[in-house]
Amino acid sequence: MIGHTTRLRGNDNHMESSESGPTLRAMPFGPGVKEAVRLLTAEQRAQLLAIATQVHLPARMVVYREGTAADSIFFVSHGVAKSFRDLPSGKRRIVAFLFADDVFGLAEAGHYVNTVQTVTPVAMYRIGLAELIDVLHRDARLEFQFLRKLTHELRKSQRHTVIVGRRDAVGRVAMFLRMLEQHSHLHGNGRITMPMTRSDTANYLGLSLEAVSRACRMLERTGVVTFTGRHDARIVDRARFDRLVARL
Amino acid sequence: MIGHTTRLRGNDNHMESSESGPTLRAMPFGPGVKEAVRLLTAEQRAQLLAIATQVHLPARMVVYREGTAADSIFFVSHGVAKSFRDLPSGKRRIVAFLFADDVFGLAEAGHYVNTVQTVTPVAMYRIGLAELIDVLHRDARLEFQFLRKLTHELRKSQRHTVIVGRRDAVGRVAMFLRMLEQHSHLHGNGRITMPMTRSDTANYLGLSLEAVSRACRMLERTGVVTFTGRHDARIVDRARFDRLVARL
DNA sequence: CGATGACTTGACTTCGCTCAAAGACAGTGG
DNA sequence: CCACTGTCTTTGAGCGAAGTCAAGTCATCG
User: A141: Cβ under 7 Å from strand C?
Assistant: First the structure.
């Protein structure tokens, strides 16, 4: 089910330097914090690490295919993947991009509903479904963090629906850039990395890849964004950019 | 925050004939069952009932508004509501329709993210957020059912995104009818009730209401569906209907 | 350095949106 | 019980924006 993988057992106890177990990131329910934060405590991460297998995949590898029996769920620790469905017409709809601190692999009726494929090289943790459920049944606090994460994902999906519902291509691309910016805001100040292809972007936004290309060119021509290389953008005119995003 | 309501305390213990507390409906993770089922046991429902307030609302009432402080979550027991956001342009996007056994009111940073308004008269349970979290922290099994429900909602939202991503109006309307059919399959055999207006349907599908109207007329003219009254449809030619749904 | 795949650009078509007006329905009050 | 009225819905004409088809350019990796 999984392609070629390099497996490192994560259960030889003590945490590694940069990696100390699966993580989740989400917006909290309550007031106060207004952006997504890491949800799990060190102990909770250790608890998950104990039943996890670390997996490294190169770019463009299929993690699992739609319809196959689901036995594991996955936690992204580094890299980007895409979750999609191929439609009868041959078109492909990307349902979500998966970044660090995201979970994927939640089944329906025992089978995965989407196909997941890496976009960049990805480091992730794999946990058997049965083991995870077992842990969750024992630890309500930990389970609650999953509830928060799922709620967060639901909102993201709803936002995605709103984006796709827009009529204008430039607006959709602008919203997409804004979304990516938040995921790569480690770089700071308008620098955005778009690891995925134009085709992936189009499939995510419900546009043709030509329309995405034209929209990007338009953003550049009007001086709102500059592209330094195909996968690196930079917001130049933040005010006009925000106006494009809001105008829907 | 809530409009005019008729409140019946749900915590005078013993269950009423038809209503014995909040419910959830979702597709299970594991194999076997292939459709959404009721998730909660009688004891779990009673447990929630103990902290719930029953609320009855007439049609077109706002339950809560986007951006207001979130202190409760709601369980629909009967009727239909819509969850939407009003966009800067004045357009409205309906993010979900809420049916019996659905939950709504999950907050983000202490505030509701969408506005919820009843479409038909709605009977529902209201539970204080603090009380619910308290119960969930005490009962991992119950909490797990919420996890299943949330996962189910995430899938529905993803499907919604795919629908909205379609280009053709008739296909989108057909998928919408199929969705409604599953929610009213109690009636059985192609009879579908559409409680919402054309305008609501349009806002849900990302179409203009004229486009929805034309699509319905088209479906009728080509003999795929018949409309007996504005809010009642019936699938006549199932084969061609399925082909319309699939052709995307 | 050459080839494959990704991206851009252009011409033409299509389909849904906008604007506009007329037709059905449901709830209200006489 | 029925006419009235506001809302919801249908239908039409014209326009614009994105899709499709078709070349041509660029980059990336062997």
Answer: no
The minimum CA-CA distance between B184 and chain A, rounded to whole Å, is 21
Instruction: Enumerate residues 20 to 79 of chain B having a beta carbon within 8 A of any beta carbon in chain A.
Output: 27-34, 69-70
Reported as a single tens digit per residue, the pLDDT across B113-128 is: 999 999 999 999 999 9
C-alpha distances out from residue B11 to B15, B140, B175, Å: 9, 22, 40
∠ CA A101-A107-A113 to the nearest 5 degrees?
Answer: 95
Which A positions 77-136 lie with beta carbon below 8 A of chain B? 85, 87-89, 91, 93, 95-96, 106-111, 113-114, 129, 133, 136
pTM, two decimal places: 0.92
Picking from A75, A65, A82, A77, the residue whose alpha carbon sits closest to that of residue A119 is A82
Amino acid identity, residue A1? M
Question: What pLDDT is stored for residue A10 in this prediction?
Answer: 40
In this complex, the answer to whether residue A216 has its CB under 7 A from any atom of chain C, a nucleic strand, is yes
The upper half-sphere exposure of residue B16, i.e. CA atoms within 13 Å in the direction of its Cβ, equals 12
Three-state DSSP at A96 gives strand
Quick: pLDDT tens for B153-200.
999 999 999 999 999 999 999 999 999 998 876 666 778 999 999 999
Whether B248 sits inside 8 A of A89 (CB atoms) is yes
Contact between A125 and A54 under an 8 Å Cβ cutoff? The reply is yes
Cβ distance of A29 and B106 shorter than 8 Å: yes
Model pLDDT, residue B171: 96
Instruction: Give chain B positions within 8 Å (CB) of A87.
Output: 162, 248
- pLDDT tens-digit map of A73-129: 999 999 999 999 999 888 999 999 999 999 999 988 899 999 999 999 999 999 999
